[in-house]
Amino acid sequence: MSAAKLNLVISAKRMLTPQICEFEFRDPSGAQLPGFEPGAHLNVATPGGSVRSYSISSDNADTSRYVIAVKCEEDGRGGSRSMVRETSVGDTLEVSEPSNAFPLVDAPKYLLVAGGIGITPILSMMRKLVREGHPKFRLVYCTRSAELTAYRDELSAPPFKGKVTIHHDGGDPDAAYDFWPDLETPDTTHVYCCGPSPLMDEIRNLTGHWSSSQIHFEDFAGVSALGADAKPFVVERASTGEVFDIPSDKSILEVVRERGYAVPSSCESGTCGSCRTKLVSGAVEHRDLVLGQKERRDAIMICVSRAAGDEKLVLDF
What local confidence, expressed as pLDDT, does residue 3 receive? Predict the structure, then answer.
């Protein structure tokens, strides 16, 4: 089953930077909201009609509200623009219960790495670590300039002061922060990284000699069902036995639509959960950023995931 839906009111809204807008959601009756752990995200039905995933930045000890931040992407698919430009305090939006594909595990030490809007899940983690008195964590927050740094004042003041390095590169790759001194020698630190692809690629490259269990990433840029490694396979509809040939250059969702089936979908990048479909049998190459390990036993996101090898998938849609 998909995560339960909540109708929540926008109780506060403010611009953090010229591009990033913060939203606070509350239950219209004042009831407490379902709990969450740092790293969790919400799927929000935007005014433009699309569903988008946004990380929660607030403290998980406070279940009276969810706080998210949305970067208005002028060249995006419209979801973020409609959130920033077409909503007002008092509006009600459909929001999923929190899901978490980026959980904060217990560790002796943490290095938190954020770039741009990637500060949102990291900030929730920091709030918990401070509240619980964890002594060994630090944040490196990379942005283009001071003006474009969300939560700059909060991160520069107690209780975060002294635990945060904010680095501005001015958009010059040669002025990027040097992470090698932090990552040269593996130890017991767990590294959490959320930000644009170049930043995450750099952290991946610099931690190749670390245990993979200590390196954690969150990426809502989405993924693709295609690529050089995509191979053709077959899908069978469980209820009718109808067979669908999925070529290497199309997703299951595309082929099913072409055959006249109106399957729910929104992001088409493996991030929102709208196209979740029951998996009856077959081995799946899961590419989504939504399903947990247990959920992947009997569900598939047909916008991006494919069969493992030439395996036939039997699906219920």
Answer: 57
Q: Are 115 and 142 spatial neighbours (Cβ–Cβ below 8 Å)?
A: yes
Structure tokens at 229: 């490694």
* Residue 287 banded pLDDT, cuts 50, 70, 90: confident
Tokens describing residue 29: 């009756």
For residues 303 and 251, is the Cβ–Cβ distance under 8 A? yes
- Within 8 A by CB and 6+ apart from 315, the residues are 235, 236, 237, 238, 252, 277, 278, 279, 280, 300, 302
Mean pLDDT, the chain, as a whole number? Answer: 91
Model pTM score: 0.77
Q: What's at 219, amino acid-wise?
A: D
Q: What DSSP string describes the chain?
A: -PPPEEEEEEEEEEESSSSEEEEEEE-TT-PPPPP--TT-EEEEE-TTS-EEEEEB-S-TT-TT-EEEEEE--TTS-SHHHHHHHS--TT-EEEEEPPB-SS-----SEEEEEEEGGGHHHHHHHHHHHHHTT---EEEEEEES-STT-TTHHHHTSTTTTTSEEEEE-TT-GGG----HHHHSS--SEEEEEES-HHHHHHHHHHTTTS-GGGEEEE--S---S-STT---EEEEETTT--EEEE-TTS-HHHHHHHTT-----S-SSSSS-TTEEEEEES-EE---SS--TTGGGSEEETTT-EESTT--EEEE-
Q: Which band of pLDDT confidence, cut at 50, 70 and 90, is reported for residue 187?
A: very high
What is the average pLDDT across 72-101? 88
Distance CA 118, CA 103 (A): 15
